[in-house]
Amino acid sequence: MKKLLTTFFAVILAGAVTAAAQGGSPEAIPFTFTAPTEFKGVGSTFTIPLTITDVTGDGIISFQFDVVFDQNLLTPNGSNFGCNSPAGTIAGNAGFFVICNVPVDDPGRLKVAAFGSVLNLSGAGTLMNLTFTANVAAPSGSVSPLDIQSYMFFSNAFPSVPGVPHTTVDGEVTIIGTTAAPTTISGQVVNQLGRPITSARLYLTDMNGKQYFTVTKRKGVFTFKDVPAGDTYILSIIAPGYSFTPSLLEVNDSISGLTIRPN
Fold first, then answer.
1. Beta-carbon neighbour count of residue 71 at 10 Å?
2. Domains contained in the chain, number
3. Tell me, what CATH number does 169's domain have?
């Protein structure tokens, strides 16, 4: 596979150099290639969008790059090593074929190669998606890099410069939570004088965006039920006439006796 990819891009580069003799504009428009920063749950399978700024007019006919990740925390998911269907992406819209591989001697490196048959890359947005699974043994709070390395974008519009100029932004994935048993979180919302605030709305949001909701009852008491442990949540409160600052709440077991006051 490695030899095949090397041979393919050698052919592409040779074609670009040959086209240079036929003339063409001397410079391409630089762009930015970005991997995101994400928070994902232990054992979850998720999509990582790799994005680019506008490449219209750059004549990109193929590209290659590596993504370096922590193989102890993440595993590429799918028959094509996480490079599943490019449908709906910039590469897919241009009819590009994507080939991915993880070398046996470098299991933390995902090698990506893509090429088109007719259309060039055009537009801005998600270039392609990668699919990973967060390993079930990954500790909560651990971080895997998503470092973009060995990158090259080949052009037929500016063949005198084999690689279209661009910058890269590395990303990372933070592993959040476990599949622990649900817990209960309870407490009281009071004003600065210690008097209860009734009918306040409380929202508990995990790092994947899942939200839990409750309302304070008589004496300002509240209870969240069936909240998974081993995760970090954002606690937000809305009550007419009061202002509350959202706070982080780490839940490893049931919590009771919380007292929350407005700003």
1. 16
2. 2
3. 2.60.40.680
Question: What are residue 10's phi and psi, to 5 degrees?
Answer: -65, -40
State pTM to two decimals.
0.61
Query: Is the CB of residue 173 less than 8 Å from the CB of residue 144?
Result: yes
Residue that wins the pLDDT comparison between 7 and 132 = 132
Q: What are phi and psi of 249, to 5 degrees?
A: -130, 115
Mean model confidence pLDDT for the chain: 87
What's the half-sphere exposure (Cβ side, CA atoms, 13 Å) at 69?
A: 31
Beta-carbon neighbour count of residue 26 at 10 Å?
8
State the average pLDDT over residues 43-55.
94
Q: Would you mind telling me the total number of residues written for the chain in this entry? A: 263
Residue 88 burial (CB count, 10 A): 12
- Is the same domain home to 159 and 203? no
Note whether 130 and 204 are same-domain residues.
no
Kindly state whether residues 36 and 108 are assigned to the same domain. Answer: yes
pLDDT above 80 for 60: yes
Phi first, then psi: give them for residue 181, nearest 5 degrees: -65, 155
Query: Is the CB of residue 33 less than 8 Å from the CB of residue 167?
Result: yes
